[in-house]
Amino acid sequence: MTKHIKPRSVEILGVRIDDVTYGEACDIAEALIRRGGVHQFATVNPEFVMAARDDEEFRNVLANTALNVPDGAGVVWAAGRRGMKLRERVAGVDLMLELCALASRHRWRVFFLGAQPGVAERAAAQIVLTYPGLTVAGTHAGTPHRAEELPIVERVRAARPHLLFVAYGAPAQDKWLARNLPLLSPGASVGQEGTHGIVGMGVGGAFDFIAGVQKRAPAWMQQANLEWLYRLARQPWRWRRQTALIRFVVAAMLESR
């Protein structure tokens, strides 16, 4: 059985960030799936942190996840100012693909929930081309609205997934998981290998990137931590969201004085 790694963590503006690599995040997911129960991962970036400051429900969600990976150069920088050098930025879309690779090896069932109609199906088909052993338990667009939660939960429960990726955008996707993962009968999803756990993770625009609906920044911009600039250039309406990054930098500097 894979050892469950308990990572070091640092608190940035009231939000826990776990110091994990891609490999360690996958090891933790494997351990939790083998253990049973339901478990939530979050991909924390500066926008998450600033939203959590003003949203108590979201703040509580992030306080109770199994893992908060450092998705964003901003949180890596802020952790350094707090005296902890995070070893790796763990981008949500790339972690999703790493987990799909792991799922293909273990024959885990994966459910893709969210995005616009048809996008989850296209993303899943593309991932299967990359990882032919992947078992797609289901795909569904749905919405994060509370009135629609019960039929969506029933659909997901019937699919018996090991991994559940939700692309409703933050914080809606993370709140949806916090409310509904417990309804997926913890420790009682039974497949060919018997009882297993479920790991759920919000993935934002990952389906759009993989399906080709939106273009991701070139590799050199990703490596230079400039994905935010590429998105802003392609989607100027995002400028209001980018003000969260400025507020985050100022708040993080004040916190670490």
- Unreliable residue runs: 187-193
Q: Which CATH architecture would you pick?
A: 3-Layer(aba) Sandwich
How many strand segments? Answer: 10
* Tally of DSSP helical segments: 12
Q: Beta-strand percentage?
A: 15-25%
Could you state the order of secondary-structure elements as H and E? Answer: EEHEHHEHHEHEHEHEEEHHHH
* Fraction of helical residues: 40-55%
Round the Cα radius of gyration to an integer and report it. 17 Å
Termini separation: 43 Å
The averaged pLDDT comes out at: 88
The main sheet comes to: 6 strands, parallel
Descriptors for this entry?
single chain; 257 residues; alpha/beta; Rossmann fold; six-stranded parallel beta sheet; 12 helices; 48% helix
Explain this structure to me?
The chain has 257 residues and is α/β, with parallel strands linked by helices. It has a single domain (9-211), classed as 3-Layer(aba) Sandwich (Rossmann fold), CATH 3.40.50. It is built from 12 helices and 10 strands. It has helices at 22-35, 46-54, 56-63, 73-81, 92-106, 119-130, 149-159, 172-180, 206-211, 219-223, 227-234, 239-255, and strands at 9-12, 15-18, 38-44, 67-70, 109-114, 135-140, 163-167, 189-191, 194-196, 198-202. Strand 1 and strand 2 (15-18) form a beta hairpin. The termini are far apart.
Provide a brief overview of the structure.
With 257 residues, the protein is an alpha/beta fold.
List the helices and strands and how they pair.
Blueprint: E1 9-12, E2 15-18, H1 22-35, E3 38-44, H2 46-54, H3 56-63, E4 67-70, H4 73-81, H5 92-106, E5 109-114, H6 119-130, E6 135-140, H7 149-159, E7 163-167, H8 172-180, E8 189-191, E9 194-196, E10 198-202, H9 206-211, H10 219-223, H11 227-234, H12 239-255
Parallel strand pairs: 3-4, 3-10, 5-6, 5-7, 7-10
Antiparallel strand pairs: 1-2, 8-9
Helix pairs in contact: 1-5, 2-3, 2-12
